[in-house]
Specification:
Serine Threonine Protein Phosphatase 5, Tetratricopeptide repeat; 308 residues; 3 domains; mainly alpha; elongated; single chain; 13 helices
Length: 308
């Protein structure tokens, strides 16, 4: 064994064959152990090849750095995203449309935006001159019915447009046809009842409102409309019963309260009527209406005093 070894810790050159460094006592390497060959030697690469590989790796690293620098998002001094850069937040989705009411029919869901939905409360039809597009809508529904004459939803929609055009008798015919095709759809019956009431067909109106109230036993509008139709006919005893049901369905509905007070007075139940009139005054209403009811209550109170 010959030669020298170098201490890995202190660098002292020591003659081979000793186990520890004479200066720092660090274990010395075995001179007969072969050092692990470098990767380039293991792969058999020449020096020129090694230089080419090193140059390629250096170029790739430099190119990657330039790309990262150019695409990195910049911000202003206040940390805001620049105006010309794309926003990082996702686009907010559109809000979902509100679900239809429980009594909404299929034709109401697909009705054009210019056409109103049925409310169930008797209202006067709109003048045709106020909505010049109604005639075009009517013609469109007529055309659709030509190819599908037994579609109750189309018949009902056409009837509603005819009501707004003031052609109530034609509307009533369309509603009646829709009812015959789909008798369990309360909206068609309510529309027919409203049209019949405007035509002065009170009994027919009451009949359809009764059928609709059987389909909607807790619907305030339908019960109130039935009470008003009965009141118009002069059957205030029956009207009291319907207005009472309507109040149970919606205690804060003023129309049923006023209707009930009026019918109670007509059937001679004046004390109850006065009490209900006072309940009506506690509800939001116009100053003119408050004055009218108060004047009427004054007359009722004086009449009751004279009777006593």
């Amino acid at each position: 064994m010959s030669g020298f070894v170098v201490c890995a810790k202190c660098g002292t050159r020591i003659k081979a064959g000793r186990g520890h460094c004479l200066k720092c006592f660090e274990p010395l390497p075995d001179p007969e152990e072969l050092a692990a060959p470098r990767l380039s030697e293991s792969l058999g690469l020449s020096r020129n090849t090694q230089m080419a590989v090193w140059a390629g790796a250096t170029f790739a690293a430099t190119l990657l750095g330039v790309l990262i620098w150019q695409t990195w998002p910049t911000r202003g001094d206040d940390g805001e995203q620049p105006a010309d850069s794309a926003p990082l937040t996702a686009v907010s989705p559109r809000p979902a449309a509100p679900p239809p009411a429980s009594h909404e029919t299929a034709d109401e869901a697909r009705r054009p935006a210019s056409e109103p939905s049925s409310s169930g409360v008797p209202v006067a039809g709109s003048a045709a001159g106020a909505e010049p597009n109604l005639e075009a809508i009517r013609a469109e529904y007529e055309e659709k019915l030509g190819s599908n004459p037994k579609d109750p939803a189309l018949l009902n929609s056409l009837g509603e447009v005819l009501m707004r055009l003031g052609r109530t008798d034609e509307a009533a015919a369309r509603f009646a046809r829709a009812v015959s095709l789909q008798p369990l759809e309360s909206t068609y019956r309510i529309n027919l009842a409203r049209a019949a009431g405007e035509l002065g067909q009170t009994d027919r109106s009451i009949e359809q409102y009764r059928e609709a109230s059987r389909l909607r036993p807790k619907d305030y509008d339908t019960l109130t409309a039935l009470g008003l139709a009965l009141q118009k006919k002069g059957d205030d005893e029956a009207a009291v019963a319907e207005f009472t049901k309507a109040r149970r369905a919606n205690p804060s509905g003023p129309a049923a309260v006023l209707g009930l007070a009026t019918s109670l007075e007509k059937v001679g139940r004046v004390d109850e009527a006065i009490d209900v009139f006072h309940q009506y005054l506690d509800m939001p209403t116009s100053p003119a209406e408050i004055g009218r009811i108060k004047a009427h209550l004054d007359l009722l109170s004086r009449g009751r005093s004279q009777v006593k």
